[in-house]
Amino acid sequence: MRETEGCAFPNRNKPATLQCELTGFAAIDGEVWREALSVSEVISCPAGTKLVECGSSADKFVIVLQGVVKVYEACENGREISLYRVCSGQVCVLTLTRLLLRSNQCAQAVAEQDVRLLAMPPEYFERLLAESKGFRSYLMTSMAHCITDVVQLTAQVSFRHLDLRLVQLIRKLSTQEPDSRIRCTHQTIANELGTTREVVSRLLKELERSGHIKLSRGSIQVLDSEKLEDLCLG
């Protein structure tokens, strides 16, 4: 994960009290871990900040302390598909694989919410990998979550029709809102599903005509969650 032109990291500070904040890392202990934290940085980024560009190299090992980072692929024609998300307490697997393989894979990452990141120098990452059983266990758990997400995405893309994937996404997003109103654009949904805005708009219109949702500018209102659930099961 690196700083790119036009990508500002406005707030950096040394994690003097970071050990107290990392309550989920109690299994990782030892002098190397404490030393690694003392030389790491905490980076705060607002939502929308591009964190990893396609083809960029990774010069730090990154853990998400707060917020959500979306990792996605983008094609030359502008289409995108979301691969997985990195949440609080998880490692950025994209930067991890770049450090381990020393390769520049063509995936990108963006802060989906305001995020705080722990950026660790690679030499301390390598020492922890060699000397800390707790650190290795943490990495394996984070990678397992990521692999599960990607396997589920592959299964959805391979075996489920786009209209069903769209309904399932709407159902999922609506349950996260108290008024069942999803506030996002058709392009955002298209990027999530790896298709075009025109296709998403057509499918949403069909759902509106059937009485499942109501479309407004910049939002989608779920009218009948039970019928939507039936479509998901069907």
UniProtKB/TrEMBL annotation:
GO terms for molecular function: DNA binding; DNA-binding transcription factor activity. Residues 160-226 form the HTH crp-type domain. InterPro entries: cNMP-bd_dom, cNMP-bd_dom_sf, Env_Response_Regulators, HTH_CRP, RmlC-like_jellyroll, WH-like_DNA-bd_sf, WH_DNA-bd_sf. Residues 24-129 form the Cyclic nucleotide-binding domain. GO terms for cellular component: cytosol. Keywords: DNA-binding, Transcription, Transcription regulation. SUPFAM superfamilies: cAMP-binding domain-like, Winged helix' DNA-binding domain. It comes from the Bacteria. This is CRP/FNR family transcriptional regulator. It comes from Thiogranum longum. The lineage of its organism: Bacteria, Pseudomonadati, Pseudomonadota, Gammaproteobacteria, Chromatiales.
